[in-house]
Write a structure and sequence with these properties.
Layout: E1 2-4, H1 10-16, H2 30-41, E2 45-52, E3 55-65, E4 75-83, H3 92-106, E5 112-114, H4 121-129
Parallel strand pairs: 4-5
Antiparallel strand pairs: 1-2, 2-3, 3-4
Length: 144
């Protein structure tokens, strides 16, 4: 069942991110708690989770960004798509991305953008099957 993350999901979500790219669960800190509180309070920030048998199986973040072009229609940014290793290839990430699309459409977004560092052909095919394409735009990242 895909739902918005709740305040009590933080610890399990941080463990889920170990299956994304993190190498350890971050220490509890005021900065971590402040970031979590801001995410929870932001109506434009949707941290979606798919829960199976009481545990988080997958997640993605969908942020709606106000915009002054395209008739002042917003756009959505999708990030941190992750599925727990033992739940992969069961439709959990797809369910999160489908829910993100519903949220973006309801907000009147004209596009959704997803960046991935994945090079695996299967992962790229997965995103294509979810409706994303790698041909329309060129992405650049500047790490800070």
């Amino acid at each position: 069942m895909v739902r918005e993350a709740r305040p009590e999901d933080l610890d399990e979500l941080l463990r889920l991110y170990l299956d994304l790219h993190e190498t350890r669960v971050p220490e509890d800190s005021p900065a971590l708690r402040e970031a979590w509180a801001r995410i929870m309070a932001d109506d434009w920030h949707h941290l979606l989770v798919d829960e199976v048998d009481g545990r988080l199986a997958a997640s993605c973040t969908c942020v709606i960004i106000p915009n002054l072009t395209r008739g002042a229609r917003p756009y959505a940014l999708i990030e941190n798509v992750v599925t727990r290793a033992d739940c992969r290839r069961q439709g959990h990430a797809r369910a999160c991305l489908d829910r993100a699309r519903e949220i973006a459409a309801a907000a009147g977004c004209y596009k959704m953008m997803l960046l991935t560092g994945a090079k695996d052909a299967g992962t790229l095919r997965f995103y294509e099957k979810c409706g994303y394409n790698g041909a329309d735009k060129t992405a650049f990242v500047q790490w800070l």
